[in-house]
Design brief:
The complex is a heterodimer of chains A (167) and B (100).
Chain A (H helix, E strand, L loop, with lengths): L1 H23 L3 H21 L3 H26 L11 H24 L17 H10 L2 H22 L4
Helix pairs in contact in A: 1-2, 2-3
Chain B lengths: L3 H21 L3 H26 L3 H31 L13
Helix pairs in contact in B: 1-2, 2-3
The chains are: A mainly alpha (167), B mainly alpha (100).
Chain lengths: 167, 100
């Protein structure tokens, strides 16, 4: 139990620190690299939560494919340094105030509802393994899975049409 | 496993940081990355609840969210490239006209 807690604290601090690093780094490439580190930390959390398949999907799809696309576009546009933070004082203060309100609200709700949160049940043998995920995905969730292919097709056509130069 | 409230709390902190990023940054690519951070924190809450209830549905939902995020990034980055072509900038303060 204590080893789990120590691991959680270290990983949690890493996740928050990398998120802050993404937020405040001037260079967009550094922000993207911080976000990759954050996604990898969250993948380790997924491993701790008995979701090995989702953890590896997170590393390959999120930290791999999606972030490579981000880095590619940043370097293609040469947009590393653009986008200064706002200069007027209320544009700096208001977001921080709103963010603090959001955080306090959510933490208060979690604290108040902590008795209603479920007690942890022991997982079954195939919980979170590729075999278990596949079995549910192709039996219970077959229609949403097929609809996903249409979504990806539409996104692909949309990206091609949008980035096509005007004839 | 630790109580599920710990994971939900961490998810809330990450979501707040993502929302803060959308509000304070002016670089549209960094704003987009903050949106990804918020999606990811929601995924963490899903996985934590899936583990706590011992039901696989949450993990399947995270799988679908990842697909939607990939589609969203492809279209969104194409939009940003198009805007950069006409405005020579991706600063959100510059995007103030509907027809560029």
């Amino acid at each position: 139990m204590t080893i789990n807690l120590i691991l959680f604290v270290i990983l949690g601090l890493t996740a928050v620190a990398t998120a802050l690093g993404m937020l405040f780094s001037r260079n967009a490439v550094y922000a993207a690299l911080f976000l990759i580190l954050n996604f990898c930390t969250v993948a380790v959390f997924y491993l701790l939560l008995d979701a090995p398949f989702i953890a590896l999907t997170q590393v390959t799809v999120y930290a791999g494919a999606i972030m490579v696309l981000f880095l590619f576009v940043i370097m293609l546009l040469g947009a590393e340094q653009t986008g200064r933070t706002p200069t007027t004082w209320w544009m700096q203060r208001t977001p921080i105030f709103l963010g603090a309100v959001l955080l306090v609200e959510t933490i208060a709700i979690i604290y108040n509802q902590r008795d209603k949160l479920p007690a942890v049940a022991p997982p079954s043998a195939t919980f979170g393994t590729p075999a278990g995920v596949g079995e549910i995905l192709f039996n219970q969730y077959l229609l949403p899975f097929e609809v996903t292919s249409i979504l990806l097709l539409v996104a692909m056509i949309g990206a091609i049409v949008l980035s096509k130069p005007k004839a | 496993m630790l109580p599920v409230a710990y994971y939900i709390g961490l998810s809330a902190i990450l979501f707040t940081l993502g929302a803060l990023g959308v509000l304070i940054r002016r670089n549209s690519i960094v704003i987009f990355m903050s949106v990804e951070l918020m999606l990811n924190s929601a995924n963490l809450a899903f996985i934590a609840f899936a583990r706590a209830y011992g039901v696989m549905g949450g993990q399947i939902f995270v799988f679908f969210i990842m697909t939607v995020a990939a589609a969203e990034v492809a279209v969104g980055l194409a939009l940003i490239v198009t805007i950069f072509r006409s405005k020579q900038s991706i600063d959100v303060d510059q995007m103030n006209s509907l027809k560029g």
